[in-house]
Amino acid sequence: MKLQIALLAGDGIGPEVIEQAVKVSDAIAKKFGHEIKWIPAITGAEAIDKVGTPYPDETHYICLDSDAVLFGAIGHPKYDNNPSAKVRPEQGLLKMRKELGLYANVRPTFIFPSLIDKSPIKSEIIKDVDLIFLRELTSGIYFGERGRKDQGNTAYDTCTYRRNEIERIARKGFEMAMSRSKKLCCVDKANVLESSRLWRETVQSLEPDYPEIKVSYEFVDAVAMRLIQWPSSYDVLVTENLFGDILTDEASVISGSMGLMPSASIGKNTSLYEPIHGSYPEAQGKNIANPLATILSAAMMFEDSFGLKSEADLIKKVVNDSLELNYVTKDLSKTGSYKSTDDIGNWISNKILKSK
Ligand code: IPM
Ligand code: MN
How many A from CA of 248 to the centre of ligand 2? Predict the structure, then answer.
Protein backbone atom coordinates (compact mmCIF):
# COMPACT_ATOMS: atom_id res chain seq x y z
CA MET A 1 0.00 0.00 0.00
CA LYS A 2 1.19 3.55 -0.75
CA LEU A 3 0.46 5.90 2.10
CA GLN A 4 0.91 9.60 2.56
CA ILE A 5 0.91 10.65 6.20
CA ALA A 6 0.99 14.22 7.49
CA LEU A 7 3.42 14.47 10.38
CA LEU A 8 2.58 17.12 12.96
CA ALA A 9 5.18 16.77 15.71
CA GLY A 10 4.13 19.92 17.55
CA ASP A 11 5.62 21.14 20.84
CA GLY A 12 7.41 19.83 23.93
CA ILE A 13 8.10 16.12 23.74
CA GLY A 14 6.00 15.89 20.55
CA PRO A 15 8.99 15.70 18.16
CA GLU A 16 10.81 13.08 20.29
CA VAL A 17 7.88 10.70 20.57
CA ILE A 18 6.82 11.23 16.96
CA GLU A 19 10.33 10.28 15.82
CA GLN A 20 9.92 6.87 17.47
CA ALA A 21 6.50 6.29 15.91
CA VAL A 22 8.00 7.12 12.51
CA LYS A 23 10.81 4.60 13.04
CA VAL A 24 8.30 1.94 14.05
CA SER A 25 5.96 2.72 11.13
CA ASP A 26 8.87 2.64 8.69
CA ALA A 27 9.87 -0.75 10.08
CA ILE A 28 6.31 -1.97 9.55
CA ALA A 29 6.30 -0.59 6.00
CA LYS A 30 9.56 -2.39 5.23
CA LYS A 31 8.37 -5.63 6.76
CA PHE A 32 5.00 -5.69 5.00
CA GLY A 33 6.00 -4.03 1.71
CA HIS A 34 4.24 -0.67 2.10
CA GLU A 35 5.53 2.72 1.09
CA ILE A 36 5.06 5.65 3.46
CA LYS A 37 5.62 9.23 2.41
CA TRP A 38 5.79 11.47 5.48
CA ILE A 39 4.89 15.13 4.99
CA PRO A 40 5.99 17.23 8.00
CA ALA A 41 4.00 20.33 8.86
CA ILE A 42 4.11 22.86 11.70
CA THR A 43 1.55 23.43 14.48
CA GLY A 44 1.30 24.84 17.99
CA ALA A 45 3.88 27.13 19.58
CA GLU A 46 6.37 26.26 16.86
CA ALA A 47 3.97 27.55 14.21
CA ILE A 48 3.18 30.69 16.24
CA ASP A 49 6.90 31.44 16.44
CA LYS A 50 7.43 30.84 12.74
CA VAL A 51 4.31 32.22 11.07
CA GLY A 52 2.20 33.81 13.83
CA THR A 53 -0.62 31.25 13.89
CA PRO A 54 -0.83 27.78 15.55
CA TYR A 55 -2.58 25.99 12.66
CA PRO A 56 -1.46 27.57 9.40
CA ASP A 57 -3.46 27.03 6.19
CA GLU A 58 -0.51 25.23 4.65
CA THR A 59 -0.61 22.66 7.46
CA HIS A 60 -4.35 22.27 6.99
CA TYR A 61 -3.97 21.55 3.26
CA ILE A 62 -1.22 19.02 3.95
CA CYS A 63 -3.58 17.23 6.40
CA LEU A 64 -6.51 17.30 3.95
CA ASP A 65 -4.30 15.96 1.22
CA SER A 66 -2.94 13.03 3.29
CA ASP A 67 -4.35 9.59 4.07
CA ALA A 68 -3.93 10.16 7.83
CA VAL A 69 -2.37 12.61 10.27
CA LEU A 70 0.05 11.55 13.00
CA PHE A 71 0.18 14.18 15.69
CA GLY A 72 2.50 14.68 18.69
CA ALA A 73 1.40 17.32 21.20
CA ILE A 74 0.64 21.01 21.44
CA GLY A 75 1.31 23.47 24.25
CA HIS A 76 4.06 25.64 25.68
CA PRO A 77 4.50 26.95 29.24
CA LYS A 78 5.15 30.49 28.07
CA TYR A 79 1.43 30.71 27.21
CA ASP A 80 0.03 28.85 30.23
CA ASN A 81 0.62 31.60 32.75
CA ASN A 82 -0.29 34.39 30.45
CA PRO A 83 -4.09 34.60 30.33
CA SER A 84 -3.92 37.66 28.11
CA ALA A 85 -1.91 36.01 25.31
CA LYS A 86 -3.82 36.69 22.08
CA VAL A 87 -2.69 33.61 20.20
CA ARG A 88 -2.32 30.32 22.07
CA PRO A 89 -1.03 26.96 20.82
CA GLU A 90 -4.24 25.21 21.96
CA GLN A 91 -6.25 27.37 19.55
CA GLY A 92 -4.41 25.52 16.79
CA LEU A 93 -5.62 22.20 18.11
CA LEU A 94 -9.22 23.37 18.28
CA LYS A 95 -9.02 24.94 14.81
CA MET A 96 -7.53 21.76 13.43
CA ARG A 97 -10.30 19.61 14.97
CA LYS A 98 -12.99 21.94 13.64
CA GLU A 99 -11.56 22.42 10.15
CA LEU A 100 -10.78 18.74 9.67
CA GLY A 101 -14.28 17.91 10.98
CA LEU A 102 -12.85 15.55 13.62
CA TYR A 103 -16.03 15.17 15.63
CA ALA A 104 -15.36 11.79 17.23
CA ASN A 105 -12.43 11.31 19.56
CA VAL A 106 -11.79 7.66 20.38
CA ARG A 107 -9.87 7.18 23.63
CA PRO A 108 -9.39 3.63 24.87
CA THR A 109 -8.25 2.55 28.31
CA PHE A 110 -6.88 -0.97 28.61
CA ILE A 111 -4.51 -2.83 30.88
CA PHE A 112 -1.09 -4.27 30.16
CA PRO A 113 -0.88 -7.21 32.60
CA SER A 114 2.83 -6.60 33.24
CA LEU A 115 2.08 -3.05 34.43
CA ILE A 116 -0.87 -3.78 36.62
CA ASP A 117 1.02 -2.80 39.78
CA LYS A 118 1.88 0.61 38.27
CA SER A 119 -1.73 1.66 38.46
CA PRO A 120 -2.74 3.85 41.40
CA ILE A 121 -5.81 1.60 41.68
CA LYS A 122 -5.79 -1.91 43.22
CA SER A 123 -5.12 -4.64 40.68
CA GLU A 124 -8.26 -6.64 41.48
CA ILE A 125 -10.34 -3.60 40.53
CA ILE A 126 -8.64 -2.88 37.23
CA LYS A 127 -7.53 -6.27 35.94
CA ASP A 128 -10.38 -6.61 33.41
CA VAL A 129 -10.59 -2.99 32.30
CA ASP A 130 -11.05 -2.55 28.57
CA LEU A 131 -13.14 0.48 27.79
CA ILE A 132 -13.44 3.12 25.10
CA PHE A 133 -14.56 6.69 25.40
CA LEU A 134 -16.11 8.41 22.45
CA ARG A 135 -15.73 12.08 23.14
CA GLU A 136 -17.53 14.64 20.98
CA LEU A 137 -14.78 16.94 19.76
CA THR A 138 -16.02 19.82 17.63
CA SER A 139 -18.89 21.37 19.57
CA GLY A 140 -20.17 22.05 23.09
CA ILE A 141 -18.62 24.55 25.49
CA TYR A 142 -15.27 24.44 23.67
CA PHE A 143 -16.84 26.13 20.66
CA GLY A 144 -19.86 27.99 22.09
CA GLU A 145 -20.28 31.69 22.51
CA ARG A 146 -18.03 33.14 25.16
CA GLY A 147 -17.09 36.53 26.41
CA ARG A 148 -16.98 39.12 29.15
CA LYS A 149 -19.42 41.74 30.29
CA ASP A 150 -19.75 44.21 33.17
CA GLN A 151 -16.40 45.83 32.36
CA GLY A 152 -14.77 42.42 32.32
CA ASN A 153 -16.08 41.37 35.73
CA THR A 154 -18.43 38.71 34.41
CA ALA A 155 -17.33 35.93 32.08
CA TYR A 156 -19.39 33.30 30.28
CA ASP A 157 -18.92 30.22 28.12
CA THR A 158 -21.91 28.51 26.57
CA CYS A 159 -22.52 24.87 25.81
CA THR A 160 -24.60 24.43 22.67
CA TYR A 161 -25.38 21.17 20.90
CA ARG A 162 -27.44 20.52 17.81
CA ARG A 163 -29.37 17.27 17.49
CA ASN A 164 -27.42 16.23 14.38
CA GLU A 165 -24.09 16.76 16.19
CA ILE A 166 -25.24 14.44 18.95
CA GLU A 167 -26.71 11.92 16.57
CA ARG A 168 -23.58 11.41 14.47
CA ILE A 169 -21.35 10.68 17.48
CA ALA A 170 -24.05 8.61 19.19
CA ARG A 171 -24.32 6.45 16.06
CA LYS A 172 -20.57 5.90 16.21
CA GLY A 173 -21.05 4.84 19.82
CA PHE A 174 -23.78 2.36 18.91
CA GLU A 175 -21.67 0.96 16.05
CA MET A 176 -18.64 0.60 18.27
CA ALA A 177 -20.76 -1.12 20.91
CA MET A 178 -22.05 -3.52 18.21
CA SER A 179 -18.46 -4.58 17.48
CA ARG A 180 -17.69 -5.08 21.18
CA SER A 181 -19.84 -6.21 24.09
CA LYS A 182 -23.06 -4.44 22.99
CA LYS A 183 -23.09 -2.11 25.98
CA LEU A 184 -23.25 1.66 25.62
CA CYS A 185 -23.19 4.24 28.39
CA CYS A 186 -24.39 7.75 27.63
CA VAL A 187 -22.71 10.15 30.07
CA ASP A 188 -24.48 13.44 30.72
CA LYS A 189 -25.78 15.82 33.37
CA ALA A 190 -29.41 15.65 32.32
CA ASN A 191 -30.61 16.40 35.85
CA VAL A 192 -29.30 19.95 35.40
CA LEU A 193 -28.30 20.85 31.85
CA GLU A 194 -30.64 21.39 28.90
CA SER A 195 -27.93 20.36 26.43
CA SER A 196 -27.61 17.08 28.35
CA ARG A 197 -31.34 16.55 28.10
CA LEU A 198 -31.05 16.85 24.32
CA TRP A 199 -28.19 14.33 24.41
CA ARG A 200 -30.27 11.86 26.35
CA GLU A 201 -33.34 12.40 24.18
CA THR A 202 -31.29 11.93 20.99
CA VAL A 203 -29.53 8.78 22.17
CA GLN A 204 -32.89 7.36 23.33
CA SER A 205 -34.41 8.08 19.91
CA LEU A 206 -31.68 5.97 18.26
CA GLU A 207 -32.16 2.94 20.50
CA PRO A 208 -34.75 1.29 18.18
CA ASP A 209 -32.16 1.28 15.37
CA TYR A 210 -29.83 -0.84 17.49
CA PRO A 211 -32.10 -3.25 19.39
CA GLU A 212 -29.19 -5.46 20.47
CA ILE A 213 -27.44 -2.68 22.36
CA LYS A 214 -28.10 -2.23 26.05
CA VAL A 215 -27.87 1.49 26.77
CA SER A 216 -27.38 2.97 30.21
CA TYR A 217 -27.72 6.68 31.02
CA GLU A 218 -25.51 7.94 33.80
CA PHE A 219 -24.67 11.33 35.25
CA VAL A 220 -21.12 12.50 34.76
CA ASP A 221 -20.39 12.89 38.48
CA ALA A 222 -21.46 9.31 39.15
CA VAL A 223 -19.37 8.05 36.23
CA ALA A 224 -16.31 9.88 37.60
CA MET A 225 -16.79 7.93 40.81
CA ARG A 226 -17.54 4.55 39.26
CA LEU A 227 -14.53 4.80 36.94
CA ILE A 228 -12.42 4.43 40.06
CA GLN A 229 -14.62 2.02 42.00
CA TRP A 230 -15.64 -0.37 39.27
CA PRO A 231 -14.10 0.60 35.90
CA SER A 232 -14.50 -2.86 34.37
CA SER A 233 -18.27 -2.39 34.40
CA TYR A 234 -17.91 -0.02 31.43
CA ASP A 235 -17.34 -0.83 27.79
CA VAL A 236 -18.22 1.98 25.35
CA LEU A 237 -19.01 5.42 26.79
CA VAL A 238 -20.22 8.31 24.70
CA THR A 239 -20.16 11.88 25.96
CA GLU A 240 -19.89 15.56 25.14
CA ASN A 241 -16.68 17.49 24.70
CA LEU A 242 -15.84 18.82 28.19
CA PHE A 243 -17.04 15.78 30.15
CA GLY A 244 -15.00 13.65 27.75
CA ASP A 245 -11.91 15.77 28.26
CA ILE A 246 -12.05 15.35 32.02
CA LEU A 247 -13.10 11.70 32.19
CA THR A 248 -10.50 10.52 29.66
CA ASP A 249 -7.67 12.02 31.71
CA GLU A 250 -9.09 10.25 34.74
CA ALA A 251 -9.43 6.96 32.86
CA SER A 252 -5.96 7.18 31.31
CA VAL A 253 -4.17 6.80 34.65
CA ILE A 254 -5.95 3.50 35.34
CA SER A 255 -3.47 1.83 32.98
CA GLY A 256 -0.49 3.00 35.03
CA SER A 257 0.98 5.85 33.01
CA MET A 258 -0.39 8.64 30.89
CA GLY A 259 2.38 7.79 28.45
CA LEU A 260 0.63 4.63 27.30
CA MET A 261 -2.74 5.40 25.82
CA PRO A 262 -3.28 6.20 22.13
CA SER A 263 -6.22 7.99 20.54
CA ALA A 264 -7.89 8.59 17.22
CA SER A 265 -9.96 11.52 16.06
CA ILE A 266 -12.24 10.72 13.19
CA GLY A 267 -14.78 12.63 11.23
CA LYS A 268 -15.46 14.14 7.86
CA ASN A 269 -12.00 14.23 6.32
CA THR A 270 -8.62 12.78 7.19
CA SER A 271 -8.42 10.99 10.56
CA LEU A 272 -5.84 12.03 13.11
CA TYR A 273 -3.92 9.85 15.57
CA GLU A 274 -2.21 11.16 18.68
CA PRO A 275 -1.11 10.13 22.16
CA ILE A 276 -3.50 11.13 24.94
CA HIS A 277 -0.73 12.84 26.89
CA GLY A 278 0.22 16.45 26.35
CA SER A 279 3.44 18.24 25.48
CA TYR A 280 5.11 17.61 28.88
CA PRO A 281 7.54 20.55 28.50
CA GLU A 282 9.55 19.58 31.63
CA ALA A 283 10.83 16.52 29.77
CA GLN A 284 11.51 18.19 26.44
CA GLY A 285 14.92 17.38 24.97
CA LYS A 286 15.82 14.98 27.82
CA ASN A 287 15.13 11.79 25.87
CA ILE A 288 13.05 10.41 28.78
CA ALA A 289 9.50 10.69 27.45
CA ASN A 290 7.54 7.49 26.98
CA PRO A 291 6.92 7.04 23.23
CA LEU A 292 4.51 4.10 23.57
CA ALA A 293 1.28 6.09 23.39
CA THR A 294 2.44 7.57 20.08
CA ILE A 295 3.66 4.22 18.79
CA LEU A 296 0.29 2.69 19.72
CA SER A 297 -1.44 5.61 18.00
CA ALA A 298 0.42 4.61 14.82
CA ALA A 299 -0.90 1.06 15.35
CA MET A 300 -4.44 2.46 15.60
CA MET A 301 -3.82 4.37 12.38
CA PHE A 302 -2.72 1.23 10.50
CA GLU A 303 -5.77 -0.66 11.67
CA ASP A 304 -8.53 1.95 11.57
CA SER A 305 -7.54 4.15 8.64
CA PHE A 306 -5.89 1.59 6.37
CA GLY A 307 -7.45 -1.71 7.48
CA LEU A 308 -3.97 -3.14 8.11
CA LYS A 309 -4.74 -5.29 11.13
CA SER A 310 -1.72 -7.61 11.03
CA GLU A 311 0.55 -4.58 10.96
CA ALA A 312 -1.24 -3.08 13.97
CA ASP A 313 -1.21 -6.38 15.82
CA LEU A 314 2.54 -6.74 15.33
CA ILE A 315 3.18 -3.27 16.78
CA LYS A 316 0.95 -4.04 19.78
CA LYS A 317 2.63 -7.38 20.34
CA VAL A 318 6.15 -5.93 20.30
CA VAL A 319 5.09 -3.07 22.59
CA ASN A 320 3.72 -5.66 24.98
CA ASP A 321 6.99 -7.66 24.74
CA SER A 322 9.01 -4.57 25.65
CA LEU A 323 6.85 -4.08 28.75
CA GLU A 324 7.09 -7.72 29.77
CA LEU A 325 10.88 -7.51 29.55
CA ASN A 326 10.76 -4.34 31.60
CA TYR A 327 12.46 -2.50 28.72
CA VAL A 328 10.79 0.78 29.68
CA THR A 329 11.19 4.53 30.11
CA LYS A 330 11.55 6.24 33.48
CA ASP A 331 7.80 6.60 34.15
CA LEU A 332 7.39 2.81 34.11
CA SER A 333 10.67 1.67 35.63
CA LYS A 334 10.36 -0.66 38.60
CA THR A 335 14.05 -0.89 39.36
CA GLY A 336 15.40 2.63 39.01
CA SER A 337 17.20 1.81 35.78
CA TYR A 338 15.42 2.75 32.59
CA LYS A 339 15.76 3.25 28.84
CA SER A 340 15.63 6.42 26.79
CA THR A 341 12.89 7.46 24.38
CA ASP A 342 15.21 6.60 21.50
CA ASP A 343 16.14 3.20 22.96
CA ILE A 344 12.48 2.20 23.04
CA GLY A 345 11.85 3.28 19.44
CA ASN A 346 14.98 1.49 18.23
CA TRP A 347 14.20 -1.69 20.16
CA ILE A 348 10.64 -1.90 18.90
CA SER A 349 11.54 -1.21 15.27
CA ASN A 350 14.40 -3.75 15.34
CA LYS A 351 12.10 -6.39 16.82
CA ILE A 352 9.55 -5.68 14.09
CA LEU A 353 12.16 -6.05 11.36
CA LYS A 354 13.44 -9.30 12.86
CA SER A 355 10.05 -10.83 13.58
CA LYS A 356 9.05 -13.92 11.59
C1 IPM B 1 -6.97 17.13 25.08
C2 IPM B 1 -6.36 18.41 25.60
C3 IPM B 1 -6.98 19.58 24.85
C4 IPM B 1 -8.46 19.57 25.13
C5 IPM B 1 -6.40 20.96 25.20
C6 IPM B 1 -4.89 20.97 25.02
C7 IPM B 1 -7.05 22.05 24.42
O8 IPM B 1 -6.51 18.54 26.96
O9 IPM B 1 -6.76 16.82 23.89
O10 IPM B 1 -7.63 16.44 25.84
O11 IPM B 1 -8.91 20.09 26.16
O12 IPM B 1 -9.20 19.01 24.32
MN1 MN C 1 -7.53 16.84 27.87
Answer: 7
